[in-house]
Amino acid sequence: xxxxxxxxxxxxxxxxxxxxxxxxxxxxxxxxxxxxxxxxxxxxxxxxxxxxxxxxxxxxxxxxxxxxxxxxxxxxxxxxxxxxxxxxxxxxxxxxxxxxxxxxxxxxxxxxxxxxxxxxxxxxxxxxxxxxxxxxxxxxxxxx
Length: 144
Ligand code: MN
What we know:
The protein has helices spanning 2-17, 29-41, 52-62, 78-85, 107-114, 126-143, and strands at residues 21-25, 45-49, 66-70, 96-100, 118-121. With 144 residues, it is α/β, with parallel strands linked by helices. It has a single domain, classed as Rossmann fold (3-Layer(aba) Sandwich). It has a 5-stranded parallel sheet, sandwiched between helices. Helix 4 (78-85) links the parallel strand 3 (66-70) and strand 4. It is globular.
C-alpha cells in the first residue's frame, strides 16, 4: 500500500515538472480569458494575478517559470511590479514578458529598463507569445 502511494506521488511529480507554470498578471477580464485559455490549451499551468501587488505575492509563493506582465494595472502597475520582482533574490532571473495596450513612444525602453526580458504590444499574437514562452522554458530547463 505504501509503495503504491509512493509510485502515484512520483508520477504526479513528473507530470507537474514537465508542465511549465506561467503567471499571468492582467486586470482586463477579456484578456485574462483569452490568454489563460490559450496557454492552458498549450499545456501550460496558468496562474492569474489581477494587480501588480497580487503578482508579487503569487510569484513569491509559486516561483513561476515565466511571468506575463500587463503594464496598466490597479494598485501597483506592471513597471513597479517588475522593479520589485527584480529586487527579490529568488525571482531575480525569472523571465518577464511585458504586455501593453498603449504602444507609446518609450514604452519598450521603460519596460526593458525596469527589468523585463521582452515586450509585446497588444493585441498580442498568441503564437508569438507562446514561442517566446517556450524559448524561455527550454532555456531554463537546460540550464538547471
Ligand atoms: Mn491593464
